[in-house]
Amino acid sequence: MESSEGRAEGSGRAPRVLVVGGGIAGLGAAQRLCRHPAFPQLRVLEATARAGGRIRSERCFGGVVELGAHWIHGPSQGNPVFQLAAKYQLLREKDLSEENQLTETGGHVGLPSVSYGSSGVSVSRELVVEMASLFYGLIDQTREFLHMADAPVPSVGEYLKKEIRQRAASWPEDEETRKLKLAVLNSFFNVECCVSGTHSMDLVALVPFGEYTVLPGLDCTFPGGYQGLTNHIMASLPEDVIVFNKPVKTVHWNGSFKEASSLGETFPVLVECEDGACFPAHHVIVTVPLGFLKEHLDTFFEPPLPTEKAEAIRKMGFGTNNKIFLEFEEPFWEPDCQYIQVVWEDTSPLEDVTSELRHIWFKKLIGFLVLPSFESVHVLCGFIAGLESEFMESLSDEDVLLSLTQVLRRVTAPDTVCRGSHTSHVLLHHARGSAVWLEGGRPAHRSAGPTGTAARALALSPAPPLQCHGEADHVLSSDRQCLSWLEIWGC
């Protein structure tokens, strides 16, 4: 599929490569290519004034907080992010231990340290463990449909609710306890929505759900901030490789473009920026977020992408996650507490929500993680996904702080929250989403074309000289394409 115009060998020059996007995928591709002498003509075009994409660490509350990426999931030798972090000595000794790397978690979030009901009572540990075992056992079952021709229902959410409804019918407890069990299960649904980056698990296709590879290892964080990883990658690149504040308007591909300074040479790709600047190239790696691609699909590529690729982009969902940081003068939680779960006792995964978002948005919170102690303050980090997360972005920090202070007082009666901030303006405004899943749930959210595994395969099938690798693919996808080009160029 490589055209003769795309090969620089005839002109005696090395191929010119552009990377669109300076997130972890773009930086990883640039690092791989810069290490090889065959690719000296390389540029990374980044739309903003900083690199790293949704990896962003900042000093707040007297310490480092992650406004974007938070953990390394599955920190073991099969994880390229873990390998880079270990190489750059960015992790704690315990996170590098063989014991930590071999621990099997099944890809599930750890159990809460404490669970508070919305009525102000503590939910028993035994009940939470029982419901967690049920929920995550069913999640494991959903992955077994990967290679099956037919699924019993279209979506993960529908499957989970069908199985829960059957089991709930035989619960021997009284009505109040059964309702509490469903409320606890609903909180686990909220967690899974954050993990999958979706408003509802009803939107996540059942059959391809098992494509996600779960790696061993206890999730770990970066003591000095996740951004240390991208900083090290940037430091390994030649000076001036990254061009900042260069938002791309259109990628013109499958053409024959000339440049005044390169007499007699033609390029199959021309990248046009918003400011009018144009960059001809032999190859382009597009690493912009999938949410951006979905929003600008009709204008970003000229000519348009092949139908099957455009449909694959449309069929992959891209959802919203937000974080909320709350600061306290004194902690109301125990010293060993790591995760506070809030259970809304009037909720159930088997019932559809009908109230207006402004009255209930905070009920989508999974609870709060306790961040490591800073100099003189104590900080909780809340996570929220979906339409409720997007509604929260429309609120002021003061409104969010007031709502969550009332929530925490209601369930735990803690002291007043000192300060709080939610990071939608930093974390998501330009990112247009945060996580990828494959659609295939309710018909209202489906469109014609391939679904599931077919959509994933089409999205990643090769099409030189243009390649798309968003941050959802991270380091592995862009690295595979770089290796492919090295083979093409005989390197």
Write the layout of secondary structure elements.
Blueprint: E1 16-20, H1 24-34, E2 41-45, E3 57-60, E4 63-66, H2 80-87, H3 93-96, H4 98-102, E5 114-117, H5 125-142, H6 156-168, H7 175-196, H8 227-235, E6 242-243, E7 248-252, E8 257-259, E9 262-267, E10 269-273, E11 278-281, E12 283-286, H9 290-300, E13 301-302, H10 307-315, E14 316-319, E15 321-328, E16 339-343, H11 357-360, E17 368-370, E18 378-385, H12 386-393, H13 397-412, E19 419-422, H14 424-427, E20 435-438, H15 452-460, E21 466-468, H16 474-488
Parallel strand pairs: 1-2, 1-12, 2-6, 5-16, 7-13, 12-21
Antiparallel strand pairs: 3-4, 7-10, 8-9, 10-11, 14-20, 15-18, 15-19, 16-17, 17-18
Mean pLDDT: 83
Rounded Rg:
24 Å
Biggest sheet, open or closed, and with what strands and sense?
6 strands, mixed
What general outline do the C-alpha atoms trace?
globular
Structural class: alpha/beta
